Amino acid sequence: MKSAVVLLPGLNRDRDMIAALTKIGGKPPVTVWQTDTEIPDVDLIVIPGGFSYGDYLRCGAIAARMPVMRAVAEKAAQGVKVMGVCNGFQILLEAGLLPGALMRNASLKFVCREVKLEVANAATAFTSGYQQGQVIRCPVAHHDGNYFADTDTLARIEGNGQVVFRYADGTNPNGSINDIAGIVNDAGNVLGLMPHPENLIEAAHGGSDGRALFESVLGVAA
Amino acid sequence: MTISNTVSITDELIAAHGLKPDEYQRILKLIGREPTYTELGIFSAMWNEHCSYKSSKKWLRTLPTSGPCVIQGPGENAGVVDIGDGQAVVFKMESHNHPSYIEPYQGAATGVGGILRDVFTMGARPVATMNALRFGEPEHAKTRHLVSGVVSGVGGYGNAFGVPTVGGEVQFDARYNDNCLVNAFAAGLADADAIFYSKAEGVGLPVVYLGAKTGRDGVGGATMASAEFDDSIDEKRPTVQVGDPFTEKCLLEACLELMASGAVIAIQDMGAAGLTCSAVEMGAKGDLGIRLDLDKVPVREERMSAYEMMLSESQERMLMVLRPEQEKEAEAIFHKWGLDFAIVGETTDDLRFRVFHQGDEVANLPIKELGDEAPEYDRPWVEPAAPAALERTDVPDMDVAEALVKLLGTPNISSRRWVWEQYDTLIQGNSLQLPGGDAGVIRVEGHATKALAFSSDVNPRYCEADPFEGGKQAVAECWRNLTATGALPLAATDNLNFGNPERPEIMGQLVHAIKGIGEACRALDFPIVSGNVSLYNETNGQGILPTPTIGGVGLIDDWSKMARVRFAAENEEIFLVGGPRELGTHLGQSAYLRDLHGRNEGPAPHVDLAHEKAVGDFVRGLIRSGIATAVHDCSDGGLGVAIAEMAIASGIGATVDLADDCDAVAALFGEDQGRYVVTMSKDSAAALAAANGVNIVRIGTTGGSSLKLGRARAIPVVELKEAHEGWFPTFMG
């Protein structure tokens, strides 16, 4: 299965993401640059974490308006799987590919720690490697991960099973509504999540709970 | 309309530039005429303490700076150390004390930015940072404001740049009330045969300006004073620079891409006194002159004078000498990353530093002498007074369980989790040990088993009592922390923070601390490869505690065998390695005495360097052979705190046997040096061979959910944890 990683100035977990895709998928992803208007024929497009354009306007707001994001939107509309992690999630929201918004953490501080995640929907292309309701470990590292959606939107995404990951066991690090950590779009082919599964895939990371997500989406047997 | 560069040179102006009358006479003699205003600024920048090390140079020369693994010692942007397999680690520590006190967020942020630039200027991708922070007493009105601002500034820059923070220190003492310390460390990895230096080579080559635009920010403190003399400076800007980690991240990628292209001959980042220091450095090192045309410098403010451009400390800027045939290629790389690229001058063969602005020559100075002829002082110093001896009977006794719980919840021993959870400790995916252990550890990317360990250490309380022993101890503790992970310590960087060197007693502290550092570095094969000196850290005539921070780097051959602080399992044997028969004896300057009884008394503990080395080598052997299952050094708070931290980190309790006639306070809270707590399985313990000269005492067993110290009450590990984790968040609110 072929994957692509979107590179934008200021993203900084691109190397982590490329390493995870390469180690688990068996081959390195292609990379696309901010000004590219076409994305090669791939099965998965990933927008990694970081601080695109310094996040100087609103997290992800500048990135969402770059030419490459039009190409990402087109691919998403065609059903290609798209995953945004951390800043990537913020960018997908700003680009209108996912509903809701990410606000500053309730603590108003950057937070980097390990949390627990409940797999709230194991029936997606991204989570089929997990059991429904399974609780996994996963690190977070962000300043703006406090997910919010208005009442109607929230009811809709909850009702549709679009909430894929929830902070579990009282470990919500940012005050997000309904403990939401990750959601998919209506069609189920676009995932955004705040935690960093790419930083928990091997013994050196002290665990590999993030691995099944990559195995699911890359179609690799565990 | 032209901008005036003509300002008359008065005694007040000279003094406002921090130049003493005899230093000014030296300038007159050197150039044979009165300097222009811009030249005066250049001299002041090159000859200040920060750039010239004029008070410390004589003593810094005595430090050991070479060794089999040292590729580059002090004198470049950072030190370079061979780690085998064609790779090198590049690192340095630098202070940003005064700016952080004035504006904590930006001061700390630009401190981090500056040290990262030092590292990637040499061709290394930054892989780890640490921060040694020292604040006033918690009760002081400014302390929380400073802690909050400095921590978010460190995080704000490092997190966005994308480098893990793997260690550091945070301490509180009233002596830092009006002068906090922010010492930032960064390390990067590079190919050993692709290190870049500042020495320019070749005449008539383009000098290129790269990165962010030049503004008035950071134009030296001297400028604020000189504004009275120069009406053309219509705005007084704060002297603290503003950091832009986004630009720095782009600058990193652009620089590494450009270096890989082979276009770079010499490179120097613009740090203190930006354009001046970087241009002079590149020329002087290469025995070349430099000619700069300031009309070509990218600026972000209008009507900047030559003086302002030469002294601006705007961040995220680089100066390079490039191969002319690759100019277009270089420009394309920088434009791809949205950065400025401008040819602002050329190298010459006249050994002059010539600066032009609007057609006028505003400076024409001998380039070698600007650096080489800087004043150097052998400042008078006095022997530090030795503190009175401390009798054991002078030290109050206390129930050891109560003492331990209290100590764990004191400002200086409690957990720093509140701080380091605001730093990205995981980015890059190589972090093997996070802050909170003995040393931060990252694996070496691209290598199956190798890892690097980092630690930053100094005990200013010891340094105040005895600068020589304190200097030795700072080095020994850093070496010990690296060793406790199983790393072989390779080399270190020093960040010497002291008061006013013009006072003989402060100079005495500096001299003795450097002597102590040198002695320890020689004994432990731990050379100093880079560093920074920060003097004049004082307010109202009282200096800070002498604080020579040591940042060390060690190499782990196989990280699958490295040791951690946490107990590995229940029912294992606990040993104290390297301790005296009584386990602990030295209570002078201890955390027990200071933090529980409010007394800074007695001599600092003595470090026996031969013993230190023998014990450390033995412990490293236990780790590397897989015998040791957990290791922690004994430092502040002694054996008691060390064991408690091992229990807290694992959630596993322990029973420590103390003889009935044992002096429990001294055994548990004495701060004797060169000691490690080591655990191992019962089988390994039974087979343990004695090491020559290293004292090994079995002191107890792991297991259960409480810590039992001799006959004192069993303390539940959850209670220890609450005490340890509670103080910081409660203090910060």
From TrEMBL, chain A:
GO terms for molecular function: ATP binding; glutaminase activity; phosphoribosylformylglycinamidine synthase activity. One of its GO terms (cellular component) is cytoplasm. It is found in: Cytoplasm. Pathway: Purine metabolism; IMP biosynthesis via de novo pathway; 5-amino-1-(5-phospho-D-ribosyl)imidazole from N(2)-formyl-N(1)-(5-phospho-D-ribosyl)glycinamide: step 1/2. CDD domains: GATase1_FGAR_AT. The active site is at 86 (nucleophile), 196, 198. It catalyses: N(2)-formyl-N(1)-(5-phospho-beta-D-ribosyl)glycinamide + L-glutamine + ATP + H2O = 2-formamido-N(1)-(5-O-phospho-beta-D-ribosyl)acetamidine + L-glutamate + ADP + phosphate + H(+); L-glutamine + H2O = L-glutamate + NH4(+). It comes from the Bacteria. Its main location: cytoplasm. Pfam families: GATase_5. Its EC number is 6.3.5.3, 3.5.1.2. Keywords: ATP-binding, Cytoplasm, Glutamine amidotransferase, Hydrolase, Ligase, Nucleotide-binding, Purine biosynthesis. InterPro entries: Class_I_gatase-like, PRibForGlyAmidine_synth_PurQ. SMART domains: GATase_5. One of its GO terms (biological process) is 'de novo' IMP biosynthetic process. HAMAP family: PurQ. Part of the phosphoribosylformylglycinamidine synthase complex involved in the purines biosynthetic pathway. Catalyzes the ATP-dependent conversion of formylglycinamide ribonucleotide (FGAR) and glutamine to yield formylglycinamidine ribonucleotide (FGAM) and glutamate. The FGAM synthase complex is composed of three subunits. PurQ produces an ammonia molecule by converting glutamine to glutamate. PurL transfers the ammonia molecule to FGAR to form FGAM in an ATP-dependent manner. Part of the FGAM synthase complex composed of 1 PurL, 1 PurQ and 2 PurS subunits. This is Phosphoribosylformylglycinamidine synthase subunit PurQ.
Automatic annotation (TrEMBL), chain B:
The keyword ATP-binding applies. Its main location: cytoplasm. GO terms for cellular component: cytoplasm. It catalyses: N(2)-formyl-N(1)-(5-phospho-beta-D-ribosyl)glycinamide + L-glutamine + ATP + H2O = 2-formamido-N(1)-(5-O-phospho-beta-D-ribosyl)acetamidine + L-glutamate + ADP + phosphate + H(+). Mg(2+) 1 binds at residues 94, 532. Residues 75-189, 436-556 form the PurM-like N-terminal domain. Mg(2+) 2 binds at residues 118, 269. The active site is at 50, 96 (proton acceptor). InterPro entries: PRibForGlyAmidine_synth_PurL, PurL_linker, PurM-like_C_dom, PurM-like_C_sf, PurM-like_N, PurM-like_N_sf. Its EC number is 6.3.5.3. It is an enzyme of class 6 (ligase). Residues 203-356, 573-704 form the PurM-like C-terminal domain. It is found in: Cytoplasm. SUPFAM superfamilies: PurM C-terminal domain-like, PurM N-terminal domain-like. Substrate binds at residues 95-98, 117, 241, 313-315, 534. Pfam families: AIRS, AIRS_C, FGAR-AT_linker. ATP binds at residues 53, 92, 494, 531. Belongs to the FGAMS family. Monomer. Part of the FGAM synthase complex composed of 1 PurL, 1 PurQ and 2 PurS subunits. This is Phosphoribosylformylglycinamidine synthase subunit PurL. It comes from Aquamicrobium aerolatum DSM 21857. The gene is purL.
